[in-house]
Design goal:
Blueprint lengths: L4 E2 L11 E5 L2 E7 L5 H7 L5 E4 L3 H12 L4 E4 L4 H8 L8 E2 L1 H7 L2 E4 L3 H13 L6 E4 L3 H4 L1 H4 L8 E7 L3 H10 L6 E9 L5 H11 L2 E6 L2 H13 L4 H16 L4 H23 L1 H6 L3 H30 L2 H11 L3 H13 L2 H12 L1
Parallel strand pairs: 1-3, 4-5, 4-7, 5-6, 7-8, 8-9, 10-11
Antiparallel strand pairs: 2-3, 3-11, 9-10
Helix pairs in contact: 1-9, 2-8, 10-14, 11-12, 12-17
Bound molecules: NADP nicotinamide-adenine-dinucleotide phosphate.
């Protein structure tokens, strides 16, 4: 018997929420229409948002905020990000500064450096965090693993999170292509609410960066689910599973294109879009009875095989092993080059070489 669960995490946002019940668990959803753009502007009137970092998140969140009429400045070091920002129309001394100056000028500090960069720049950011300011993250990493990152904000500042559920480029593309009407989903959370307004600020910024629907989370839940997701089904497992099946088919005498078509092409081009549009059940119901019988039987086998690995991964995320490894690797000056080699090795695998040929044929 399922218990009826109702956990409204961000209590002052109740008037903006719509609720859905999923298997007895009631979840809050904040739809774009719940907080019009003019209200978001009112919330940030006379406040400057300083975006630190111009990677996928910093670039696209700051451009969406700027297009949305918020007062945005950037804080960057001289280098590739700085040059990119200039070519996107940001002007040095006007709305483009070094990290220290932007953090000093900003009321809301969007901390969107790489997670490793956040650790390095923390002393600079911290010294500019005075009462009344807000520190904003798009990932719970720095705060949740503060014993490893050293990121402990002063108690008198608000600390909030808005984490888009996808790459920054997609956040902007969908938003711009839909004429600023649509976007991707985002989770928001509050870690410190010194002002008492942090929850509404997080919601308004979530919409300001171009989100479609917003869901509530906590810093812990965001980082645990995000790190587990990318290590498992979203990235780690998918590469492992595709390559395992491809290698079996190749070792049993199938040609590269046949192995690729049965492993990747059919998945990405035919079946996954159907799952996305109509659901897993619909996809199962609309394939052959031969496929149905085998897939239902084998799905149970894979569930029991994979679930323990995902449990282990989740444990290693929570106990800090995964973040410790990320921080340790990024501290090594040689790491960028080693990582580049590892990424090139994926590119060099036969399965992904075949992918290039098959893509050309589409
Ligand atoms: N990418 C995603 O899909 C995604 C999704 C949701 C949330 N997030 C989170 O968003 C945050 C930003 O991620 P991202 O992917 O946009 O960026 P990223 O690629 O991880 O970081 C790139 C930015 O960090 C700067 N940077 C790195 N080290 C620095 C240092 N020591 N001093 C100053 N600047 C430094 C880089 O500047 P230079 O160009 O000068 O090197 C660049 O502007 C992270 O917390 C991430 O976990 C990412």
């Amino acid at each position: 018997m399922l218990h009826y669960l109702f956990v409204m995490l961000l209590k002052t946002l109740q008037p903006y929420a719509t609720f859905v019940s999923i298997n007895g668990y009631q979840e809050a959803i904040f739809k774009r229409s719940s907080l019009p753009r003019t209200k978001c502007h009112d919330i940030f009137r006379n406040r400057t948002i300083a975006t630190l970092g111009y990677g996928p998140q910093g670039r696209n969140q700051s451009l969406n905020l700027r297009d949305n009429g918020f007062n945005v400045i950037l804080g960057l070091r001289k280098g590739p990000s700085w040059s990119k920002a200039v070519s996107d129309g940001w002007s040095p001394g006007i709305d483009l500064f070094d990290t220290d100056e932007a953090t000093y000028k900003g009321d809301v500090i969007q901390y969107l450096l790489s997670d490793a960069g956040q650790i390095q720049m923390w002393p600079v950011v911290k010294r500019n965090l005075k009462q009344g300011k807000t520190l904003y993250f798009s990932h719970g990493f720095g705060i949740v693993f503060s014993d490893q990152t050293g990121i402990v904000p002063p108690a008198e500042v608000d600390v909030i999170l808005a984490a888009p559920k996808g790459p920054g480029g997609m956040l902007r593309d969908k938003y711009v292509k839909s004429n600023y009407a649509s976007g991707i989903n985002t989770s928001i959370a509050v870690h410190q609410n010194a002002s008492g307004n942090a929850e509404l600020d997080a919601l308004a910024l979530g919409f300001g960066i171009g989100s479609l629907n917003i869901f509530e989370t906590t810093f812990d839940r965001e980082v645990y689910s995000d790190l587990t997701g990318e290590r498992c089904v979203l990235m780690g497992m998918i590469q492992g599973a595709f390559k395992a099946q491809y290698d079996v088919l190749r070792s049993r005498g199938h040609s590269p294109i046949e192995a690729f078509n049965e492993t990747v092409e059919e998945a990405l081009v035919s079946l996954y879009p159907i799952i996305n549009e109509k659901g897993m059940d619909w996809m199962y119901k609309n394939c052959s009875t031969t496929a149905q019988r085998g897939a239902i039987d084998w799905s149970k086998h894979f569930y029991s095989l994979i679930r323990p690995s995902i449990e282990r991964c989740y444990d290693d995320v929570v106990n800090g092993k995964e973040t410790r490894r990320v921080i340790y690797c990024n501290k090594n000056p040689e790491y960028r080059r080693q990582l580049e080699n590892e990424l090139n090795q994926i590119d060099d695998q036969e399965i992904w070489k075949t992918a290039k040929i098959v893509r050309e044929l589409r």
